[in-house]
Structure formats: C-alpha cells, structure tokens
Amino acid sequence: MEGDIAVQRRRNALSCFFCKWKKSVNGLVEVPVTVSPDFSLYERMKIEKAMLTFTKETCIRFVPRSTEVDYLSIENGRGCWSYIGRAGGRQLVSLNRDECIYNGLIQHELNHAHDLAYSLHSAHTY
C-alpha cells in the first residue's frame, strides 16, 4: 500500500498491456461494478451519485456487473484505497463507511481504479 493506492506486485511494464479498461466500439469505457450490501441505502446513493459524475463528464460508464471476469468490487474496507487501472478479476475498491463516503473521495478512488489522473478534467483527453 502506498498512501491510498494498493500496489499490484505482479504487474510490470511487460505484463501491463491489459492494465487499462478498454473503450468499446461505441466510444464508451464500460467498467462493471458491484457495491457491497454492507452499505446503507444512503451510502449506496452517494456512491451511485459519484459514479454518475463520470457519466456526465467522461466516456466512462460504471455498469452493474453481470458475468464479467474483471470488475470493481466497492466494499466497506479499511480506509480509502484502490489499485491503479484494471488489475484483473475482482478488484477491490475500499471505501470505509465511516471515513470515505464523500463525493470527492469516492471519485478519487474510482479515478485510481480507472487509471485516470487526479482530476476528472483529464478524462476529456481520454
């Protein structure tokens, strides 16, 4: 762990071809996601609102996971952190319900999970 970024030990420059979420033929980047039932309805609404910001500002669409192998799993973990980019398989995004359920923090961790810079504005050049 480095700050709020979980370091992927098995990834290196040679094996990182699949580290990005792919843009589909329609130009959108669909990222499958699950949100833990441990969150209250209010907390889930805040998480969904943060995800909708990406819909308004970027080509990124967080979509409910169906059978996708690679997906984000947003959970009530210890602290606020995520891996950078697509890590493969079930990818934990930790949003502690007592510390992290704020729009800016949620967006920040989703930025990491998508491998965006620290500002949504950078996504306009995606």
From TrEMBL:
PROSITE patterns according to UniProt: ASTACIN (PS51864)
Record keyword Disulfide bond present: yes
Keyword Amino-acid biosynthesis: no
Annotated InterPro entries: MetalloPept_cat_dom_sf, Peptidase_M12A, Peptidase_Metallo
SUPFAM superfamilies: Metalloproteases ('zincins'), catalytic domain
Disulfide bonds: C16-C19
Domain Peptidase M12A: 12-126
EC numbers: 3.4.24.-
Protein name: Metalloendopeptidase
GO molecular function: metalloendopeptidase activity; zinc ion binding
Keywords on record: Disulfide bond, Hydrolase, Metal-binding, Metalloprotease, Protease, Zinc
One GO-annotated biological process of the protein: proteolysis
Source taxon at top rank: Eukaryota
SMART domains the UniProt entry points to: ZnMc
Cofactor requirements of the protein: Zn(2+)
Cofactor note: Binds 1 zinc ion per subunit.
